[in-house]
Design goal:
By secondary structure, the chain is mostly helical. It folds into two domains: 90 residues, Orthogonal Bundle (Arc Repressor Mutant, subunit A), CATH 1.10.10.10; 145 residues, GntR ligand-binding domain-like (Four Helix Bundle (Hemerythrin (Met), subunit A)). The strands form two sheets. The protein has a two-stranded antiparallel ribbon with strand order 1-2. Strands 3-4 form a two-stranded antiparallel ribbon. Helix 5 packs parallel to helix 10. The longest helix has 20 residues.
Length: 249
Amino acid sequence: MRLFKTHIIKMNEKDIKNEITVLDTSNLVDKAEMKLIDIFIKKELKPGDPIPKEIELAKAMGVSRTVIRESLNRLKTIGIIESKKHKGTVIKSPNFFNIFQKSMIPNILDNGTLMDVFELRLIIEVGLADFILMRITPKDIKELEKIVQSEPEKSDTVLFDVDHEIKFHGKLYEITGNKSLIQFQSVLLPLFNYVYKSGLINKPIKRKKYVSHKGLVNILKKGDADKFRTAMRAHLENHFLRIADRQVR
């Protein structure tokens, strides 16, 4: 009888152990990470400012050092903090566009996100006019003329190949002198091309002439920001037509 009871106890212990799984601490790490960011904001910490050590943070938050370490590693990965010799861990100014670029993998983004980014590029390029006209030089004009010298005066539904598109529009972004915008462009143009080739905007449109790259350069020579803005909108007309019926949810 005793042997039978012992067997039952052992079986129960085994069953219980089989039901025990490793606790998921990811949610705790998420909370610690967001708490740290909240502290950085509230304390108005600047690049170079030190933050408390792991053990101090763990004690203050009432969590293990493992949780704090994982949270800090995440913040290092996105460039918000960094380790400095003789200083410990300090606040860092993150490179937003490097982070953005790493996540901008066209084939793993859903169609809604792809279309949003496609439209974002159109919004930006129509708005470049004032900065381009404010900072363009005769040397820039010559470089643009060299880029477009083989293009026809006008085009219908033709879309330039991605290399040509990047050269021309990349030069426009460069002329603005805005370094963040230049970095952003390096992400947007390849994705823009992917959206077109993927068929997301493969919508039949009426044959329609629009302003070519060469036409844009001719307007830049005249130094009129308003005319250039209107011309850029016309240059992108075929793209606007392809997304005109898009339903945003």
